[in-house]
Design goal:
The protein is mainly beta and 126 residues long. The protein has no helices and eleven strands.
């Protein structure tokens, strides 16, 4: 069973940076390099929304709200996906979730991802 564990969340002032990591384990028949990874977030009282995704071919896609500030990456040797977040704003406050697609898609749609982490809290103070 694939497990995803996020880390790196915390409290930061507006304009600051955080780096989220998502460690994958329990991979058996499909190596991490073949997975597509996505990051989503959910703020209190709001629906979960797409943040960024990276396909197995390393093509990336971002939500307009984070483009130019956030960078998604994969380290296949470490079975880890990362989300580098810069110029954070209070509206970025949310629980951030990573997700994995076993056939390599990097999609904006949450419904295509078969595996999800438990989330990590990011709080940006003004």
């Amino acid at each position: 069973q694939v497990q995803l564990v996020e880390s790196g969340g915390g409290l930061v002032q507006a304009g600051g940076s955080l780096r989220l990591s998502c460690a994958a384990s329990g991979l058996t028949f499909i190596t991490f390099s073949n997975y597509g990874m996505g990051w989503f977030r959910q703020a209190p009282g709001k629906e979960r929304e797409f943040v960024a995704a990276i396909s197995r071919s390393t093509s990336t896609v971002y939500a307009d709200s984070v483009k130019g500030r956030f960078t998604i990456s994969k380290d296949n040797a470490k079975n880890t996906a990362c989300l580098e977040m810069n110029s954070l704003q209070p509206e970025d406050t949310a629980v951030y979730y990573c997700a994995a697609h076993q056939w390599g898609l990097g999609s904006r749609s949450a419904s295509v991802y078969g595996y999800w982490g438990q989330g990590t809290q990011v709080t940006v103070s003004s």
